[in-house]
Amino acid sequence: MASKTQVNPDREVKKVRIVEEPTTASNWQHGDIDWVNVTFVAIIPLVGFIVAFSTPLLWKTAVWAFIYYFLTGLGITAGYHRLWSHTSYSAVLPVQIILAGLGGGAIQGSIRWWSRNHRAHHRYTDTMKDPYSVQKGLLYAHMGWLIFKQNPNEVGRVDISDLNHDPVVNWQHRHYVSVALTMAFLFPCLVAGIGWGDWMGGLIYAGILRLFVVQQATFCVNSLAHWLGDQPFDDRNSPRDHVITALVTLGEGYHNFHHEFPSDYRNAIQWYQYDPTKWSIWLWKQVGLASDLKTFRRNEIEKGRLQQLQKKLDEKRSTIDWGTPLADLPLLDWDEYTTRVAGGEALIAIAGVIHDVKSFIKDHPGGKALIASAIGKDATAIFNGGVYNHTNAAHNLLSTMRVGMLRGGVEVEMWKRRDGKSEMAGVY
Description:
The protein is mainly alpha-helical. Helices cover 50% and strands 4% of the residues. It is built from 18 helices and six strands. A four-stranded mixed sheet has the order 3-6-5-4. The protein has a two-stranded antiparallel sheet with strand order 1-2. It is elongated, with a radius of gyration of 34 Å.
């Protein structure tokens, strides 16, 4: 009788999933590969590039490929992203159907699947629950999350009840394979073939290679937009704004703004910023095809911008020498002040603050004699216009020379001694 091999549970090695580690050159080959996704984002495009070498590119096909790239890109940006993921506007049924079809032509999953992941991305940005977190690596955020099967238990939960009751979303989800294959390959091939007889060119250039470009462009929102650019509204997470990303992604590159104000139908709020998706939605509204365009209050947007500017200013301010804080300076009586001056210290009192100017006398732009004449005195009037109205730079430089504070301030101490009225001292 053959003996059964005994497995010691304590000796079992738990398999580490690729999605739980940053993607590197040494571990990329070990994960659970999703061959369906690999086929559509890598293998088919590779075949398309090879066949393109023997397929002439007609100018009509090139124009059609560009137009269809733009249209399928809008299917993702205006449809999957802003209409369904964020409900930032409403569209009439024909527009919804067209966007659902065009989005399917980008082969990035159904509306329901795509929006569920995107909502998780916003709710759990830069955490392990973010399905395409840039913290797992730039390559992972760009394509790795599609190439390697994700552990469904690791992806954060979100509410998609509205999508579950959307008839267009449900129709596209049920028939996604047919919609995707038809819109990605058959439709662009038919247009070029019936239009000007270029069947193969329509398939290769407007179909396969166009698909590769629109996929890579969209993937840049998950990778490039979390790596390149500025953070004018919030820097606690990775999203960034950059015109290059905007150019690549039909306006989705102002990602720092978008993560801060996700319900806004715009990504770019300045007239000169590139956001054709915003312009398209706005145009649809003008002709009655879209409505309820959501915008965040301008006041709140400016609050966020100002708070971030203030944060950066505070960080910069902390690196600069502003002199000893007034609260940390020792208190000196007027007599102590004059005694120290008599002992050889080059002290000057200005507005109740005592400054040691010994090292600056020889560099004083107004000459040694003028600054020397103020030593041991109240030089407030001299400094603030009596002799010369000093610049802001002079005030800043003076602050680095603080060594003490006059008890009660200059005016109080002088009042004590004016005409021998010592009774004033009792008031203070």
